[in-house]
Design brief:
alpha/beta; eight-stranded mixed beta sheet; four-stranded parallel beta sheet
Length: about 425
């Protein structure tokens, strides 16, 4: 089989490389010529464990290629995946679908025969129907079937999530066209039959909503345990034991019950906001999700206040070490990271901030104040600090000796 993946960002690059590993011929398209040239040269623009080796292997074996020419990529493809950005639209929080719609029209005009057009990007309910109208207007002479195949990739473990997923969701239109689209996608995912991965075939609207509902539920679990952590501090309970006790209940599960600075990244913030806006537009508001959004943002803003309180009520003349800047470990992604809220507040409160992150400092520097000193290691960041904040749980921080940290720091906080 042969497919084209429109968009060589995180989702497109990981998905394309993994499909190539399945034995599919994949051509990745991106409008950024510099990115395409970098990929051809073996330079991966994102940090994802194992991705550089996976890309190199499949390029070498001729299954994976990169281009800026959409027509070239679409020619002869059985399916074309849309993996372009759907950021939050300024002003109202709705998903910005302009990239999806533009790419769909370009694919339709470039197509030379029937194909399946699949939205891999996270899109609100109803987007598939809109895409179908766009391609029909652009090419009424061609049978272009639209489907939804949402991704469930976690940054830092994306390759494993693609190769060994909990499920594959495929949404199609009713009728013969939908059956053809489903058949094509089932063929693409056939290697997963060996490990008996469930393939859930639904209407296209259902598939679109599954992704938003799943992300919103996980975001709610994170926010719930963070509020329980605050309560534990007040009453003298251990939130880790509370989390463990809850997670052993099979109805709840252990995942996403780890207290922390609040969720961030490329998915949860924009997807919860888009779901809330969509629900409001349809007269069925999701109050729990709206509250989750508000509580999560408030938690990030309160982080600096906790540091101030721990330092006796003032950070004037104090040095604060911050370990971890990315929104989670095993990624260089700074999108909606708690550090983007906390660090500027520390600086405004008079602190000198010394920060270290194993992968994210290159992306952090243009986003954080110039007053931040970027250290060469965790111990270097702790040197002379009055307080230390562990913000991102990188494994290398777990191995740090508390005694060495205390010796590096000048305070007792």
């Amino acid at each position: 089989m042969r497919i084209a993946m429109i968009g060589a960002g995180y989702v497109g690059l990981v998905s394309g490389a993994c499909f190539a590993e399945f034995g599919v011929e994949v051509c990745l398209v991106d409008t950024d010529a510099a990115k395409v040239e970098a990929l051809r040269a073996g330079r991966i623009p994102i940090y994802e464990p194992g991705l550089d080796a996976l890309v190199a292997e499949n390029v070498r074996d001729g299954r994976l290629s990169f281009t800026t020419e959409l027509e070239q990529a679409v020619r002869g493809a059985d399916a074309v995946f849309l993996a372009v950005g759907t950021p939050s639209r300024r002003g109202d929080g709705h998903a910005d679908l302009s990239y999806v719609y533009a790419a769909a029209e370009q694919v339709a005009r470039a197509a030379q025969g029937p194909l399946v057009l699949v939205t891999k990007s996270t899109v609100p309910v109803g987007t598939g129907r809109q895409v179908q109208e766009i391609v029909r207007r652009a090419r009424p002479d061609l049978a272009i079937e639209v489907a939804s195949n949402p991704e469930f990739l976690r940054e830092g473990s994306a390759i494993g999530d693609f190769m060994r997923p909990d499920r594959v969701v495929i949404g199609t239109m009713a009728g013969a066209g939908g059956e053809r689209a489903l058949a094509v996608l089932r063929r693409l995912y056939r290697p997963l039959n060996l490990i008996e991965v469930p393939i859930l075939a639904t209407r296209i609207e259902t598939a679109e909503l599954i992704k938003y509902a799943a992300n919103a539920f996980l975001a709610t679990k994170i926010t719930f345990i963070n509020e329980i952590a605050d309560l534990c501090e007040r009453v003298g309970a251990d939130v880790h034991d509370v989390s463990r006790g809850m997670g052993l209940d099979g109805r709840i599960g252990r995942k996403f019950l780890h207290p922390g600075p609040g969720y961030g990244g490329s998915c949860f913030p924009k997807d919860t906001l888009a779901l809330a806006r969509t629900a409001q537009d349809h007269g069925a508001p999701v109050r729990l999700v709206e509250t989750t959004i508000a509580v999560n943002e408030a938690r990030k803003a309160a982080l600096a206040d906790r540091v101030v309180a721990a330092c006796g009520g003032s950070l004037a003349g104090k040095v604060v070490a911050v370990l971890g800047l990315t929104f989670k470990p095993e990624t260089d992604d700074m999108r909606d990271a708690a550090s983007l809220v906390m660090v500027p507040r520390l600086v405004e409160a008079g602190a000198a901030v010394r920060a270290f992150d194993p992968a994210g400092m290159g992306h952090a520097q243009p986003l954080l104040p110039g007053a931040v000193h970027y250290a060469t290691s965790a111990l270097d960041a702790a040197q002379g600090a009055d307080a230390l904040v562990l913000l991102t749980e990188w494994n290398e921080f777990r191995a740090l000796s508390p005694e060495k940290l205390r010796r590096a720091m000048r305070g007792n906080v």
